[in-house]
Amino acid sequence: MLTYCFKNCIFQPSCILVNVFKTHEYLFYTFLSDSVTAIWDFGMKRFLRRIAAITAVITTALTFAACSEQESANTSTLTPAAVSNPVTGPDMVLVGGTILTVDATDSTAEAIAITGNRISAVGSTDQIRALSGDNTRVIELEGRTVVPGLTDSHIHIIRAGLTWGREISWANESTLEGALELVRTAASNTPDGEWLIVAGGWHKLQFDDQRLPSAAEVTEAAGNHPIYVQYLYDTAILNAAAMTAMNIANDADVPPVGVLRRDADGNPTGEIDGNILVFHALLSALPKPDFATQVDGTKELMAELNRLGMTSFSDGGGGGQMPEHYKPLLRIWQDGEMTMRVAYHLMSQKRGQELDDLKNLTQLVPQGFGDDWLRFNGFGEVIIWEMHDGSRAGMQFNPSSEAKAALRTAFGWIAENGYGMEIHAASDSSAQQILDVLDEVNAETPIADLRWSILHIDAASVSTLERMKALGVSFGLQSRLYTGGEALVELLGEDRARSAPPIKTALDLGLLVGGGTDALAVGPYNPWIAIRWLLDGKLISREITRGPEEIPSRTQALRLYTYNGAWLQFAEDDRGSIEVGKMADIAVLSEDYMAMPVDDIAGLTSLLTLVDGRAVHADGPYEDLAP
Ligand SMILES: [Zn+2]
Fold first, then answer.
1. Separation of CA 193 and ligand 1 centre (Å)
2. Which of 227, 254, 285 is at the close of a domain?
3. What percentage of residues in the chain have a pLDDT greater than 90?
4. Distance from the CA of 229 to the center of ligand 1, in angstroms?
5. Is 159 part of any domain?
6. Separation of 160 CA from ligand 1 center, angstroms?
C-alpha cells in the first residue's frame, strides 16, 4: 500500500491530503505563528527538529488514511500520467459513452481520460469524471460510441493527394446527372484550358441509371477543359481536347494493351479500354498541379479521411508513383501539419531494374525510418513487375521462371536487410507462385518477424491461407470486390464467390488480416463502406455474393481496421486500441456502430476525431473543438 500511495496517489486532486489542507488552512497558519514565537524562546536547531518530526508524523498518518481509500477504487485504469498534473488532472476526459476498446478481450468502457497525447485512464464515467481537475476539458459523449482511430492498411493516398485538390470525386454521387453536374461546376470554377480529372473511386452501379457517361455527355459537361474520367481499371473517357493534349490517336498510344473505341466512321470516340498498366501510365501522364496545390490537396484528402474517423493509413506505393511524388507529404510532415499517421512503402517503376532501384532509393532509409507521424514501412506493392498479375481477381497467372528468380533475389535482399514488404496478388494462382518463392527465402532467412503480407487475393483458397499462416505472412484484405465482385461472379461462378474473400476462414486459421480499401482508383475510400461490405457481403449493386459463413462479427471487422492496421505498421504498442498508455487516436462516431442496422453503417462519420490527443476533425456537438 505504501509504495502504491507514494507512486500513484500523493497530491492527486481527489486525494484527502489536499482536501484536508484546503479545509483546515487557518489551523495551519495558527501553528506557523506559534512556532515563530517558540523560535524566539528556544533557538533554531531545536525548533527545526521539532518541525521535521511533527511533519513526518502528520504526513504518514494522512497518507495512510488517504491511500487505503484510493487503492480500492481504480488500480487497473490509472497510470502515473493521470496524476502527472495533480491540480489540473488529465487534459481531457470523454465520459458517458460506449468505448469499444479493441483490447485483447474486446472489452468496453464508459469513459476515457487523456493526458498529453496519451490515454491515461479507461473506466466508468464516475471513475473518470472524478479524475477531472481545474483545467480538464470534459467531453460529454451522451451515450455515443468511441472507437480507436481507423487505419486503412492498404490505400493509395500519396498518389491521389497530388491531384485531389484539382480532382472531382464522384464517390458520394447517387445519380449520373449529379456526377456530370459536379463536372459542370468545376468547369465553371476552373480557368479555361485547365484539366478536369475524375480518377476512379466510383462505380456505374451506384448511379440511378446504372451506366457510364457517354463521351458526348462528358465532353458537354467539361466545356473548354480537357477532361479525363477513369472507371476502375477498365475504361477511361476523354474529350477531344484531352486526346490531343495526350497525343492519343491510335491504340499504340495507349500501351501496353489499350484499345480506342471508334464510331461508325472509324473515329476515336474518346473512350479507351485497357487494364491496370494502361491506366497507371495514363494517370501518371496527366499534368500535375503545382506543388502548393499538391500539398493542399494531400492535406484536404487527409482531412476528408479524418471526417470518417481515420487516423492512420499505410500507403501502398503504386503504379506511376515516382520518388518526387512523396515530396508533398514530406513537406506536410516537415511543417508539423500531419493529421494522420502514415506508414509508406516504396516500389520501383523501373521494369527489369527493380532491385537496383530499391537499393538506391533506400541507401539512407532503414526499415522503420521516421517518427510517429511518418514512417518507412518497407517495399510494395509491386516488387518485380513481371510478377504483377494485373487487377482481375480469379485469373490464372503463370509467370516465367526468370520472373520468379528475380523475385527470389529481391525477397532475399529485402529479408536479409530486415525490411517490411507487402506484395500484390489479385489472383490465388499468383499468390501460390509468390508462396513458392517465399518458402525458398524463408528456408534461408526466416521472415515471420518481418510482418510481410500478401495483398488482395480476393478469391484466396484455403491452401493459400494455410501456406501464409505457416510462413507467418499476413493477409492484406481490401474491399475491392465491392466494386469488382460482378466480374468475379462472372469468372468463377456464384458458388465460388460465396467464399470470396475467405475472411472468416482466414481469421479462424489465426492469420492476421489487415483491412483496407485499395482506394482511390478501384473503389471508394470510405472505410465504413468497406466495413459494411465485410459485414453484409453485398456488392455496390447491393447484390449478395459472399455467404454468411464468411461474414465476420462487428468487433472482428473493427479490429481489421484498428489494431491489425497498427500491427502491420509495427505500432500496436502505441495505438490501434483504447488502452492506458496508448496514443490518444480515437473517433467519436455519429451512430451506434454495434447496434445500428448493417445497411446504415456506410453512412457513419466521426463527430470528433483526435490524433495525438488533438482534435483534427470536430462536428455537430463538438464543433467548437474544430481545428
Ligand atoms: Zn494497391
1. 31
2. 285
3. 76
4. 19
5. no
6. 12
- Give dist(CA 476, CA 518) in Å, integer: 10
What are the Cα distances from residue 408, in Å, to 352, 355, 361, 575? 14, 11, 19, 34
Task: Please tell me whether residues 203 and 89 are part of one structural domain.
Answer: no
In a domain, 626, yes or no: no
Give this prediction's pTM.
0.85
- 145 C-alpha vs ligand 1 centroid, how far in Å? 31
Per-residue confidence band for 33, with pLDDT thresholds at 50, 70 and 90: low
- Does the residue 135 lie in any domain? yes
- Burial class of residue 192 (count of CB atoms within 10 Å of its CB; 0-12, 13-18, 19+): exposed
**Alpha-carbon distance 503 to 509, whole Å?**
10
Ligand 1: distance of its center to the CA of 189 in Å? Answer: 32
Task: Read off the pLDDT of residues 284-309 as tens digits, 9 standing for 90 and up.
Answer: 899 888 999 999 999 999 999 999 99
Task: Indicate the residue among 285, 316, 351 that finishes a domain.
Answer: 285
| CATH number, residue 297 | 3.20.20.140
Digit-coded pLDDT (tens) for 182-227 = 999 999 999 889 999 998 889 898 899 899 999 999 999 999 999 9
Cell of 13: 486532486
CA of 470 to the centre of ligand 1 (A): 24
| pLDDT at residue number 149 | 98
Residue 325 and residue 260 share a domain: no
Count of structural domains, the chain: 3
Residues 60 and 24 in one domain: yes
The pLDDT value recorded for residue 63 is 63
- Residue 504, φ and ψ in degrees, nearest 5: -65, -40
Distance 451 CA to ligand 1 centre (A): 18
Q: What is the CATH number of the domain that holds 43?
A: 2.30.40.10
- The pocket of ion ligand 1, defined by CB under 5 A, consists of 316, 381, 518
CA 568 to ligand 1 centroid distance, Å = 15
Cβ 558 vs Cβ 515: under 8 Å: no
* 239 C-alpha to ligand 1 centroid (Å): 28
Q: Measured in angstroms, how far is the CA atom of residue 128 from the centroid of ligand 1?
A: 42
Q: Give yes or no: residues 176 and 305 share one domain.
A: no
Surface-to-core class of residue 25, CB atoms within 10 Å of its CB (0-12 exposed, 13-18 middle, 19+ buried): exposed
> Confidence class of residue 158 from pLDDT cuts 50, 70 and 90?
very high
Does 625 fall in a domain? no
Sheet holding 586-589, edge to edge: 108-109, 98-100, 145-148, 586-589, 606-611, 614-618
274-to-244, 280, 341, 428, 573 alpha-carbon distances in Å: 19, 10, 34, 22, 43
Residues 296 and 371 placed together within one structural domain of the fold: yes
Let me know whether 343 and 400 are in one domain. Answer: yes
Same-domain status, 278 and 296? no
- Mark whether 239 and 313 lie in a shared domain: no
User: Could you tell me the distance, in angstroms and rounded to a whole number, from the CA of residue 205 to the centre of ligand 1?
Assistant: 22
State the distance from the centre of ligand 1 to the C-alpha of 316, rounded, in angstroms.
Answer: 6
Pairing of strands 268-273, 341-346: unpaired
Domain of 69, in residue numbers: 3-143
> How far away, in angstroms, is 259 Cα from ligand 1 center?
24
